[in-house]
Amino acid sequence: MWPFKGSQQRYDAVAGDEEELKAAASANRHGSASKRTRTVWIVAVVTIALFALAGLAYHTLRSPAQTQDPAANDTPTPPSSENDNNNDNNSSTRCPQRREWRTLPPSDQQAYISAVLCLRTRPSTLLPSSNRTAYDDYPWIHSHVGYFTHNSAPFLPWHRYFLHIYEKALREECGYAGSLVYWDWTLDSEALEGSPVFDATTGFGGDGEVGGEITVGRSGRCVVDGPFRNVTADYYDVKFQPHCLSRGFRDQEGNLGHIDGHEISPESIEEVLGLDEYEKFVALMESRVHDAIPFGIAGDFETFTAPYDPLFFLHHTQLDRLWWLWQQRQPDKGLTAYGGHKERHSMKMASLEDEIGMRKLAPSIKVAQVMDVEGDFLCYRY
């Protein structure tokens, strides 16, 4: 389990600040060690003086029992932070860290993109005898199963498990050695269309072709740059409609080429993280925070087959990170805070014992199993 933080902690983007946190942690450790050293010397001098007054012999003072360092077993308590979690069986080294896209070196960015492209060459788990790929399984499961988790309690835990399955596939099917990455769009909220994730060389390509033919939805046009420019998608929502991977940046007024970011600014995120009840938190996480990106990027991202766009997974990993941050602010209930309706259009109430289903993509599990990202079932940190 991670170190909890108090409710007064404000949202801060963490991209690029890992080294500062590590330096601060190192300074705290050295400071603590210096204080303990002075304490040990004082104790030693007083002890020797008492033994001398008691008339102990010289050989007694030199015996192993008396020369043993009294602080030998005094292990310092490591400092804790959101990004340096050294508790619970040293989970900071036991569980790998998911990092923000722009903090990765180019070699790690390329390794991730290569693994995603590789998954498009592997056979489907759902229909192994078809010409569908392992990557195609994810848009299908999201549109046929994930659909029922939207606007309900399991929205966050279902997607947390979905991300875990995807990460596992990248590693086992394509030899990816890293972890999932997230896009902290709060860093780009003033000009989302200029985010590094849209870079054609070090990112996922940009907007659909300017002036190009509408392929899907209101504004979707073929992505013509970056590593996914030749990718195709078979479905648009639940309709079989083969087409090129499409995007169509648009703001709330319908202006093309621009994505509104005010709903995912640091101030907006802080307001969401400040909510105390899970049911209110998950509702605003979806209606305000989650929806801003699909409706802004549009194209394939705008429907329930959104995983065709590889940015879907960076977006949802960021959402998962925000849930993780919110859990930290609930030290008395962070791992059990859950409630609301069991699924979309249902009047049944949710429980931690509810199942998270993935059809044949992966075994069903209970919601309780994904509440702790550094527990027995999941093992990662942010």
From TrEMBL:
Gene Ontology MF, one: oxidoreductase activity
Alphabetical UniProt keywords: Copper, Membrane, Metal-binding, Transmembrane, Transmembrane helix
Lineage summary: Eukaryota, Fungi, Dikarya, Ascomycota, Pezizomycotina
Spans traversing the lipid bilayer: 39-58
Domain Tyrosinase copper-binding: 150-167, 309-320
SUPFAM superfamilies recorded: Di-copper centre-containing domain
Biased composition (Low complexity): 80-92
Pfam families named in the record: Tyrosinase
Keyword Membrane attached: yes
The name this protein goes by in its record: Tyrosinase copper-binding domain-containing protein
UniProt organism field: Friedmanniomyces endolithicus
Extent of the signal sequence: none
Region (Disordered): 65-101
